[in-house]
Amino acid sequence: MAISNIGVGSGLPLDQLLADLRKNSEAPLTVIQNKQTVANARLSAYGVLKSSVEAVQKAAEALGKASTYGAVKVASNSTDTLTVTGSDKAIAGQYNVEITELAKAQSLVALGREDRTSNIGNGGVITFTLEDGTTAKLDLSGKDTSLDAIVAAINADPSLGVNATLINDGSDSPHRLMLTASTTGTDASITSISVDGNADLENLLGYDAADPSAHTLEQKTEALNAKLTINGIEITSQTNTVTDAVEGLTLTLNKKTSTDPVLVSATRDPSVATKAVTDFVNAYNNMNTNIRQLTSYNADDGQASVLTGDSVSRNIQSQMRSILDFSLPGTAVGTLAGLGITTNPASGALTVDNTKLEAALKANPSEVIAFFAGEDGLSARLKKTTESILNTEQGIISTAQSGAKRQVDDLKTQLASAEARIDSQMEVYRKQFLALDKIVTQMNATSNYLTQQLEMLSANATKKN
């Protein structure tokens, strides 16, 4: 509310007086604003706690996966010839691979035509039959039957199992339709093509693998299966990507072997497990650091942190620390310390001895898996605890956040109400000051008038004397 220009007529400092009154009236607002700052800080701090626990939960999930401990590292000593990838089902071992044949896709080529845009007969239904018994039809009834249109129609329908393109051989009838099986291997090869309702198109595209000389469509590339041996065992594959020969390994064949076989190795890869453990330790330490910072108290200057004395933080810290005391009786591993993971008694932070951890993974892999990923292992216990803490309806963090949010909203309402009361009171003062200013201004004008009249009377009396 504007307060300037009050008191100009009267000469009284009413605008300053009104500003001072507002300043004194707004002093109690500082108390509410300070409470708002604290409440918002608590709400933010609970958000930090929640994120920290979620990070621990996510890291614990990785610890609970059996694949984390069964990971293998795969390699090929001749990647130009063969590449290999592995899944979590791969088993450590070495394999000598000889490749005697690569899989190829069949290709058929039609006789050349002078024009690629003119129709070849009218309509017709083309039927494609593949070696695996698959049959598919392409209906061209009422449609363009030129070479360009046929290529577009075939390529637009992947269910046919055939791809089409045009080859220009430079002759007087240069445009030749080439059909290629969509995938490699004999099962995907074309055994017959027939056209119903269009004799001209039948003459161009008709094909029967059992009697190829009966038609003009010519096979240029024979469909072949990949052939290889793995440690002397003969393997046949429809494609050059062999996925089911060795469990957990995918072999991609690039070319035939010449003299020596390709050596494919699969060795245990402890780095996946050590990374999972390290990620968990880092997530736990981050949570522990956040709790310590949010609840710390400086005895020297009496300065408290935003969650000093907060029961929610202490509860989370207590629950997490109790889980770390978990032990697996009757095993060489036993505890976290047996795996090289120790706790700093002063700070509560965890430290990992990777050498000791990798030794345990090598010497007692089944016990390590049981400790971390067992039905009642560390991961399962952490999952149960973190789910309880993070429960959106009854979890301690959610409950604390709801309380802090209500306090923030209440303080916002209090502040708005207090500001409204002050504005209302200031408006009353402003109107009173305006009235006062008007009265004093009028009194000053009357005073000035009377003074002027008296001065005139005094002057007239002096002249008469």
Automatic annotation (TrEMBL):
Coiled-coil ranges per UniProt: 401-428
Keywords noted in UniProt: Bacterial flagellum, Cell projection, Cilium, Coiled coil, Flagellum
Subcellular location(s) of the protein: Bacterial flagellum
Keyword Coiled coil part of the UniProt annotation: yes
A single BP term in Gene Ontology: cell adhesion
Residues annotated as domain Flagellar hook-associated protein 2 C-terminal: 223-445
Family recorded in the similarity comment: Belongs to the FliD family.
Record-given protein name: Filament cap protein
